[in-house]
Amino acid sequence: MTSDPVTTITLDRPEQRNAVDRSLAGRLAERFDAVAQGDVVVLRGAGAAFCAGWDLTDITAAVTAGGDEPALLLESGRRLLDAIDRSGAVVVAVVDGLALGFG
User: Fold this and answer.
1) Buried/exposed code over 42-68 (b: 16+ C-beta within 10 A; e: otherwise)
2) N or C end of the chain, less CB within 10 A?
3) Which percentage of the chain shows pLDDT scores above 90?
């Protein structure tokens, strides 16, 4: 008998309503890179929100820094979305609370 592997990934920044910043995007991309084709991933948020989108503090810092920082910020989001797509996993989002923007 076989069973389908299920991985639960929790966005765990409840004090920021699970807003994604570059650090979280990188950790999430690593988790999705480790998921096998056809696995099931349950994605949920800790606390009262699923995900408040991209962390505005991170965006402000990148824009203020200028140079390559805005492009690097966008690249970190693209890497995460590519990792999710590449994983070939079935992703089930348990949306409880806010789900905004990038969330």
Assistant:
1) ebbbebebbbbbbbeebbeebeeeeee
2) N
3) 89
